[in-house]
Amino acid sequence: MASGQFVNKLQEEVICPICLDILQKPVTIDCGHNFCLKCITQIGETSCGFFKCPLCKTSVRKNAIRFNSLLRNLVEKIQALQASEVQSKRKEATCPRHQEMFHYFCEDDGKFLCFVCRESKDHKSHNVSLIEEAAQNYQGQIQEQIQVLQQKEKETVQVKAQGVHRVDVFTDQVEHEKQRILTEFELLHQVLEEEKNFLLSRIYWLGHEGTEAGKHYVASTEPQLNDLKKLVDSLKTKQNMPPRQLLE
Ligand SMILES: [Zn+2]
Ligand SMILES: [Zn+2]
Ligand SMILES: [Zn+2]
Ligand SMILES: [Zn+2]
């Protein structure tokens, strides 16, 4: 915490709840609350013996108001601290070379200047403005930068959204293509299955027909073969016959 803030916090602790100023001659009453002597005396003025604490409404004895030396010391210390704060602030705002207040800001050197500095040859040709104006300019620049950055942020968000959209579209396309391939192959598979069944049934039929035809052929050639065999046998017999018998 900066020392200034610290002093302010401390000061809050020694504020009189009646006049809302720093306690003057702080006193404590029966309930434990603290006030300026003057403030609490005014409250108790109209009553005799007892009065109500303006903070907690407790009934307290009028003659039990007592000075709080601890609090008084604290108030004095805080006031001393505040005084030194003010002094150091004044010192910060004073040119150490000329003991004059800073009123200007040199844009070239980034330095605060008193009116003597400003007229000096060091800064005479420099771009010098009043501190308030320089601060305003700076605020303006900051504002501009904020706007530029906000615009960039907006654009980045848009680009990101577009990117996300593109990825979504691509993912959809991939899924669609996958489904298309699956469907196509399922169809192909069906067609091939049908073709296979058709060819198989055809080959079964051919096989069956062939076997039947073969059987039929064998059956039909059997008597012819027998006849031929008989003929061959008789011819063989004739072959072995003596010539005479053969020519009979
Ligand atoms: Zn007071
Ligand atoms: Zn009280
Ligand atoms: Zn100066
Ligand atoms: Zn300068």
From TrEMBL:
MF terms in GO: ubiquitin protein ligase activity; zinc ion binding
Subcellular localization: Cytoplasm
Pfam families: zf-B_box, zf-C3HC4_4
EC number assigned by the record: 2.3.2.27
Keyword Transferase part of the UniProt annotation: yes
Pathway note: Protein modification; protein ubiquitination
One GO location term (cellular component): cytoplasm
Alphabetized InterPro entries for the sequence: TRIM/RBCC, Znf_B-box, Znf_B-box_chordata, Znf_RING, Znf_RING/FYVE/PHD, Znf_RING_CS
Residues covered by the B box-type domain: 90-131
Primary site of residence: cytoplasm
UniProt keyword list: Coiled coil, Cytoplasm, Metal-binding, Transferase, Ubl conjugation pathway, Zinc, Zinc-finger
Catalysis: reaction(s): S-ubiquitinyl-[E2 ubiquitin-conjugating enzyme]-L-cysteine + [acceptor protein]-L-lysine = [E2 ubiquitin-conjugating enzyme]-L-cysteine + N(6)-ubiquitinyl-[acceptor protein]-L-lysine
Domain annotation RING-type: ranges: 16-57
SUPFAM superfamilies, per the entry: B-box zinc-binding domain, RING/U-box
Keyword Cytoplasm: yes
Family as reported in the entry's similarity comment: Belongs to the TRIM/RBCC family.
Stated name of the protein: RING-type E3 ubiquitin transferase
Organism: Homo sapiens (Human)
Taxonomic placement: Eukaryota, Metazoa, Chordata, Craniata, Vertebrata
